[in-house]
Structure formats: structure tokens, C-alpha cells
Amino acid sequence: MYVRSVCARCNNQCGAKYGGAYVDLVRRVAERIGDVQEFHTISILSVKRPLAILKQVMFQFVSANGPGFVRANDWVAPFIRNTTNRSIPSDIGIYLFASNTRGARRTGISSHINLSQSSGFNVVSEFSFWPLGTVLSFGRFSQHGLAPIHHWVDYPFDYKGTVDLHLAVNPTSSPYPVDFRSKSQVESGYPGDSPDLRLPSEEDGKEMVKELVRRSGGDEKDFSFSGHPGTVEKMAKRGILRPRTK
User: Fold this and answer.
1) DSSP assignment of the chain, as one string?
2) What is the pLDDT of residue 140?
3) Is 125 left (phi over 0), alpha (psi -120 to 50) or beta?
4) Which of 30, 139, 178, 184 has the fewest CB atoms in 10 Å of its CB?
5) Which stretches in the chain have pLDDT values below 50?
């Protein structure tokens, strides 16, 4: 599977510098994951060239999200182009997980509100292709099942040592980023009128869209809202959403 998303020069340069280390990690995960059940953990010990892997992960997000993403995040291009550059913003989170789900899940930059939390929203991008999933977050993202690797910037590019990696095996049955519900959990559907659910305010929605546009380099018209029909109906009744009519 391939997609034309970057020029040959960038693709070849990054592949030569970073691709080998990343492919080696993917191969080791593929050899280990086998029939490991969802929500279990596998350990990949003595991983070599951590900074090269981190840079390859970021290069994949460039490929997935396009030039607008690079323009909106001026640290990305210098970080990828220069092997010695170890500068990423303190609020950027980069994570890995393993997956036994065959296929891919690429979500681009998206934002979401967890209706079971008291406040706040997350802006993330996911690029997953069996057997490894990668997540980029704007603002550190605390979720079980994600192994942080942003701290690998502490290792120089020519680091001779190794690091250990412990990866949760997460299902990717839903189309939504960082949604690690099992297939049965997805099919069980809407949680109904649970008193623990909190519908976002109009201010929450506006702030979420503003941050999404700023981080992605896109335009508000490039995005659409999605959610369970029951949630959408409730939000529309409260005036939080203004559904478009055909």
C-alpha cells in the first residue's frame, strides 16, 4: 500500500536516515504480537536508535496531514530535516501502541470531547498500520494504552545504547482516533441517558474548533462534526449544534 504524499527527495532522505530503525521496530513488533489478546501488553527490549524512530514517526504525520500541518507547526520541518535537532514543544505528545487489527486507521488532525469527563477536549492525530499505531497529541494526552516516546528527544542521534518499550495491544475497531474500544464495545452503542455524560457547551465547541484549525493549518470549512445520533440530537435540542439541512 502506498500513497503519493511527499516529494521523492524528502522521502528518500528520510527513508535513508530514519526508515531502517523504524522498520526494525515494526518487524520486531510483528514477530511478537502473534495471537496476543487485546488489552494485553508486549515488551520490545533493547530498541536501537530511538531518536531516528521518533523522527520517522513525525515524518509519517507530515505525510498524513499535508503541507498545511507543516506550515502551522514551524518546529516540524527543522526537527525532521536535521538529524541533530532535538527540539519539540513541551506540549507535544508522541505515543506508540501495538494492534492486532489488520488494516490501517489514519485520522488526520481531529479534536474530540469526552462526554464522560468534566471538561476539556483533545486535539490528536493517529496514524496506525498493523502492527504498530502512532499518536500525536497537542497538549499532553493521558490515556491508558499509549506508550510515550516524546522523551526520546533526550537521546542523541548517534546514541549507542538501547531503550525498552512496553506496548499495549489496542483494538482499532472504530474509525475514531484513540478510540480503543473492542468491537463488541463499539457495537453495544450509545450509553443512553447516563447521568455521568456531560454535553459540551457552545463555548467548548467554539474553542475546540479554534484549536483544531490552529494546529492543523486547515480551515473551519474543512471539518465536520460526527458523533452518535443520540448525542447529536441532544446537542441540537440545546442549541449547541446547528444541523445543516439539504
Assistant:
1) -----S-HHHHHHHIIIIIHHHHHHHHHHHHHHTTPPTT-EEEEEEEE-HHHHHHHHHHHHHHHHHHHHHHH-TTHHHHHH-TT-----TTEEEEEEE----SEEEEEEEEE--TTSSS--EEEEEEEETTEEEEEEES----TT-EE-GGGGGS-TT--SEEEEEEEB----SSSTT----HHHHHT----S-TT--PPPHHHHHHHHHHHHHHH---GGG------HHHHHHHHHTTS------
2) 72
3) beta
4) 184
5) 245-246
CB 75 within 8 A of CB 197: no
Give 168's contacts (C-beta < 8 A, 6+ positions apart): 39, 40, 41, 97, 98, 144, 145, 146, 147
Residues in the chain: 246
Q: Tell me the one-letter amino acid at 66.
A: G
* pLDDT for res 246: 38
* Nine-digit cell string for 107: 485520522
Q: 131, 148, 100, 102: which is closest to 25 by C-alpha?
A: 131
Confidence at residue 201, expressed as pLDDT on a 0 to 100 scale: 75
Domain ranges for the chain, please list them: 8-189+196-225
Buried b (16+ CB within 10 A) or exposed e, 11-37: eeebeebbbebbeebbebbeeebeeee
pTM of the model: 0.87
Pairing of strands 147-148, 132-138: unpaired
The identity of residue 214, as a single letter, is R
Can you give the pLDDT at residue 41?
Answer: 95
| Preceding amide of 131 cis, omega within 30 | yes
